[in-house]
Amino acid sequence: MERIAELTILSTDDKEAIDLPRTSVDELVEGKKRLYIESYGCQMNFSDSEIVAAVMRNAGFATTSSAEDADVIFLNTCAIRDNAEQKVRHRLKQLNTYKKKKPELMVGMLGCMAERLKTKLLEEEHIVDIVAGPDAYRDIPKLVEEAETGQKAVNVFLSREETYADIAPIRLNSNGITAFISIMRGCDNMCSFCVVPFTRGRERSRDPYSIVREAEQLFADGYKEVTLLGQNVDSYKWQSDNAESVTFADLLARVASVHPDLRVRFSTSHPKDITDEVLHTIARFDNICNYIHLPAQSGNSRILELMNRTYDREWYLQKIDRIRAILGEECGISHDMISGFCSETEEEHQDTLSLMEYARYDYGYMFAYSERPGTLAAKKYKDDVPEDVKKRRLSEIIALQQRLSLERNQRHIGQIHRVLAEGPSKRSDADLSGRNDQNKVVVFPRGTFKKGDYVNVLITECSSATLIGTVV
Ligand code: SAH
Ligand code: SF4
Ligand code: F3S
């Protein structure tokens, strides 16, 4: 789920550190108060910040890309691992210098860390004026008003219904080509290591008509790709009052039918929920990308059981087989993996490596286990794998992924890929960078092309992170 800037191999520590993702929309501000938002964690949080910006605009605020100029600063936080929280605490220390210069500055904590710590945050971080959980964003203008009177303002109620379906997000940090659409909220899965069910509440699916309308609007505005977001998109299920029932496969087909030039991606799939119907829908539509993010977490059945993932190694491998059978060898597959979960032995770690070899993943997000207070694992199991062992196992997982990524990328040399140009490449203005069907970054000479164009590129070279080619 977490946002990536480019396909490079990331480990625990750099994953949330890619950039300081802040509001980059500077609006006309005359007479208006200014809002600055920074987002941490997964794509859901980035997407939520766009909802928050819309709510605040309705309340008369303008967005700014400069924290120093802001009247209100929001940090939309992540609690997934301890280091994600440490990063935010560190950032609060930096923001203190602004608050000292401008005591009327309001600082708000939003998102998962706010939900996890609730009023405790106010005791621990004196700079914080406002605490708002993921389901409280409609209430934010009221919380700001309350805080302006000098009292601390908190709303951390979780909802069973809120999907913000009627709020048109303000696209922040947008390249104008790719956008996220949130299709569901919350998670009911209770993986034993994971804090998300506690910070995001119960699972609920958003009205499909509002999702399709948002996709149509984006396409009309020039966007060429949407990513449907949820913690567990394959369990999307919507039921209307007159018993119309929409599954994730149905929704995918509806969004893909908006226009053949609107590409559709989705994330994240839980292996227990992804169905053949979804795979066949991907196969049926050229504009649904041939790429699946299928977190494994471990390659060992005993550990998967302790993690409460509800599948075992064999089930997972059989899912990989189904994907390759229905979508072909070229389908891009990525994973999430955790090293050093409670009581993991060296042999069990080897099972993770062998599962990765079998799956031949294109890409991965890999983490050392970080115990989260209140989770099932924290209550039931001992976090007993020493830190240096977790780190060493993690580095073995990352090294293997690097090799697999390179091997997978080398397969593409000599092939022609349809690439959606997203903007200039990082290294040179003479090149454009975009992504192919499998979500891989492809760099090619700009020529007369511009961002938003689909370009056929012959792949001629690669690294483990990038494909390089020429236009055909
Ligand atoms: N809903 C997604 C995952 C969201 S969290 C899914 O189920 O696939 C993103 C990733 O963070 C997880 O897949 C897991 O690999 C990692 N993660 C979650 N909790 C963690 C923890 N306590 N320690 C280390 N990594 C964790
Ligand atoms: Fe966390 Fe599991 Fe839900 Fe993913 S499916 S958000 S890992 S509880
Ligand atoms: Fe996302 Fe982090 Fe929350 S990964 S759901 S922002 S805990």
UniProtKB/TrEMBL annotation:
It is found in: Cytoplasm. Residues 173-407 form the Radical SAM core domain. [4Fe-4S] cluster 1 binds at residues 42, 78, 112. Catalyzes the methylthiolation of N6-(dimethylallyl)adenosine (i(6)A), leading to the formation of 2-methylthio-N6-(dimethylallyl)adenosine (ms(2)i(6)A) at position 37 in tRNAs that read codons beginning with uridine. InterPro entries: Elp3/MiaA/NifB-like_rSAM, Methylthiotransferase, Methylthiotransferase_CS, Methylthiotransferase_N, Methylthiotransferase_N_sf, MiaB_methiolase, rSAM, rSAM_horseshoe. The gene is miaB. [4Fe-4S] cluster 2 binds at residues 187, 191, 194. Its EC number is 2.8.4.3. SMART domains: Elp3 (SM00729). It holds the Pfam family TRAM. Belongs to the methylthiotransferase family. MiaB subfamily. Keywords: 4Fe-4S, Cytoplasm, Iron, Iron-sulfur, Metal-binding, S-adenosyl-L-methionine, Transferase, tRNA processing. It catalyses: N(6)-dimethylallyladenosine(37) in tRNA + (sulfur carrier)-SH + AH2 + 2 S-adenosyl-L-methionine = 2-methylsulfanyl-N(6)-dimethylallyladenosine(37) in tRNA + (sulfur carrier)-H + 5'-deoxyadenosine + L-methionine + A + S-adenosyl-L-homocysteine + 2 H(+). Monomer. It comes from Fibrella forsythiae. This is tRNA-2-methylthio-N(6)-dimethylallyladenosine synthase. Gene3D superfamilies: Methylthiotransferase, N-terminal domain, tm_1862 like domain. It is an enzyme of class 2 (transferase).
